[in-house]
Amino acid sequence: MTNAPADPGASGLRRTLGTGDAVVVGLGAMLGAGIFAALAPAARAAGPGLLVGLAVAAVVAYCNAGSSARLAALYPASGGTYVYGRERLGEFWGYLAGWAFVVGKTASCAAMALTVGAYAWPGQAHAVAVAAVVLVTAVDYGGMQRSASVTRVIVGVVLAVLASVVVVCLTSGDAAPGRLDDGVSGGTGGVLQAAGLLFFAFAGYARIATLGEEVRDPARTIPRAVRAALGIALVAYAAVAVAVLAVLGAESLGASVAPLADAVRAAGVPGL
Question: What's the CA gap between 203 and 29, in Å, rounded?
Answer without folding.
Answer: 8
